[in-house]
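User: I'm designing a mutation panel for Alpha/beta hydrolase and want to avoid disrupting the core. Could you give me a predicted structure to guide residue selection? Please restate the sequence first so the numbering is unambiguous.

Assistant: Good idea. Sequence first, for numbering, then the predicted structure tokens:
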Amino acid sequence: MKKIFVVLAVTFAFLSNAKAQKIDTLSITLENVKYPYPVKYLPITTEGQDIKMAYMDVAPTKFANGKTAILFHGKNFGGYYWGNVIKALTDIGYRVIVPDQIGFGKSSKPFIHYSFHQMAAWNKKLLDTLGIQKTIVLGHSMGGMLATRFALMYPDKTEKLLLENPIGLEDYKTFVPYITTEQQYQTELKTTAESVRKYYQTSYFTYWKPEYEYLVNVAGGVTFSADYPRWAKVAAMTFTMIYEQPVVYEFQNLKVPTVLFIGKEDKTIVGKGLLTPDQQALHGQYRFLGKQTASKIPGAKIIEFEACGHIPHVEIATEFLVALTGSL
């Protein structure tokens, strides 16, 4: 009996490992991930380090309208998930700039002090380098916090602010227990492809579909890299950035036209795993947070989506793109 048990245990371990290895090992700068458009790099020097910021610069496919849009990705993503949005915007005449923020995607993963102010300044430098005077800014999730900071710092450069299920609609540090960056790093080190899939299935989407697997392939693929500890460390550092640098108290200071796009089933909380189920139920309720935030921003409009979670441009792509292009 003991021998049979050992054989079964070994077989199960082999099958589990085989399942995990179906996801390709990826480098932490995603060299082997194909982006929807060609990628270029902006050199940056910061804190004594020479780093580079990856970005796509996509020309309009039809008659150019002379306008530009810049897209800011969420914390668990990079420019690779914006393909359908880029196409929709370039089809109606927009030039579209899609950076991978420093610490994310194909960009460098330096150990530095991460701040939304610094990120906003780097994005302004990118736009200045490309000769772009004014832009529409679309930010998803963490990108919404960055887009808000960018619009606050550079209102003259922001033609319109578009926020797609942004995080930071609450001040997480007022109800999520504090943990150090080192503690968060230890948590990040435990990430696996399976834990990524489970998190995306339960936190980001109302109904899981096979076509969402490419998101897992990227976020899960890097966990097999020998350099994954660096990725995990940067992920912990940017977690601390989100926790310590709220924008929620400054929405009333925005001076640019603003539209919020809100999937009403979103229940995202940064640090959700540190809360009890009862505490979780009190926060991250986007069906309420969206309206509350819109009421704080002078002249803001809100477009809400039923039966949609954290990523409308993926989960309900057609409906989102109609709303997005209509708002422009």
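For picking mutation sites, this is relevant: Confidence is low (pLDDT under 50) at residues 1-21. Residues 25-327 form a domain with the Rossmann fold fold (CATH 3.40.50.1820).
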